[in-house]
Hints:
10% helix; Fumarylacetoacetate hydrolase, domain 2; hydrolase activity; EC 3.7.-.-
Amino acid sequence: MRIARFSIDGNVAFGAVEGQGTVESGDLVLDIIKGIPYADFELSGTKVPLNKVRLLPPVLPNKVVAIGRNYAEHAAELGHEVPEAPITFFKPTTSVIGSGDAIEYPSFSEELHHEAELAVVIGRMCREVPRERVRDVILGYTCANDVTARDVQKREKQWARAKGFDTSCPLGPWVETDVDPHDLTIQATVNGEQRQLGRTSDMVRSIEDLVVHITEAMTLLPGDVILTGTPAGVGPLHVGDEVAVTIEGIGTLTNKVIKRG
């Protein structure tokens, strides 16, 4: 099931996406969900065309836990070795935007990069999750773009500002609950030109590894998001660019870059 979060007539709701096509095609409809997707829910039978609503970020996470250098070729392109333990960092809730929202080029950077990523959406509160129970705590998967001020990341040596600025975490267009995430094509295009192309099977550490590692330290809540790292091919974004992240079996996340303020 594809679960979208959207607004219509000033109201926010979740809906199940039905039909085939793209967000822009007009071929998709939303069956509005009674309740929230983190518990048992029913479909209302009330349907609205998806192109008549505003898509929102599919979840509003309490926290986004991101993983650095989880693809060997990406680590190499930045001149790094694969770390002995996963590099983890946070992106704040205020960094999250949805498909179709604008990425605002931060005034303190001159080198903005795209990073296409598979995002894991947590479906239930969990801590110290054993490997064999990882699937039980996952609601589904969505597309993400870990937008990074690369010059700031290099200059400041820590990543809070470089990766946590407002609009730096596009998520969407929806959460796919019925997909095997272990060997999916993941790609990024900028203005239609392919920049990144990889497979989730190239991750150094699997989704199971990451959930076990993270929940050893902290409790994850429903709607929390794990960013699983980016394949090689990261590169610059400029004001006016349109960047799209597409993951096989999930969909396409599209955002334009604008000047802040």
